[in-house]
Amino acid sequence: AALGTLLARRETGELDLAVVDVRSPHERAAGMIPGAIGVEVHDLATSGAAALPPAARGCDLVLYCQSGVRSAFALRVLRPHFAAREESVRHLDGGYDAWLRAGRQG
């Protein structure tokens, strides 16, 4: 499903969803998807799901970075931690750049 659809389902309470920005703090300072949680990809690579804040554990995740490369890597890192519900961990193809190109605000 498209991120906009997932966010709408989160707003109605239909979906427990955390949007995770895996970019650096410097990149996040320039703008983020509203409501996203910042966790650097390096932290996910070294600590796996333990790097996620408690609010993001146990719910569906959408990971994103600037272009989709780091979030795709983070997805591969986290998938084993969500093996029982693999479909609940996704990444935003095209990243924050795609979000902005779609006319959305950060």
Task: Please give a structural write-up.
There is one protein chain. With 106 residues, the protein is an alpha/beta fold. The protein contains five helices and four strands. A four-stranded parallel β-sheet has the order 2-1-3-4.
Key structural traits:
106 residues, alpha/beta, 36% helix, globular
Structural topology:
Blueprint lengths: L2 H9 L5 E5 L3 H5 L7 E2 L2 H7 L12 E5 L4 H10 L10 E3 L3 H7 L5
Parallel strand pairs: 1-2, 1-3, 3-4
The general outline is globular
State the helix count. 5
Please tell me the overall pLDDT: 88
Strand order of the largest sheet: 2-1-3-4
- Beta-strand content estimate: 5-15%
Helical content stands at: 25-40%
Report, as a whole number of angstroms, the end-to-end distance: 20 Å
Number of strands: 4
Radius of gyration: 13 Å
Order of helices and strands: HEHEHEHEH
> How would you sum up the major sheet?
4 strands, parallel
Uncertain spans, ≥5 residues at pLDDT below 50? none
Structural class comes to alpha/beta
What is the compact description of this entry?
The chain is an alpha/beta fold and 106 residues long. The chain is built from 5 helices and 4 strands.
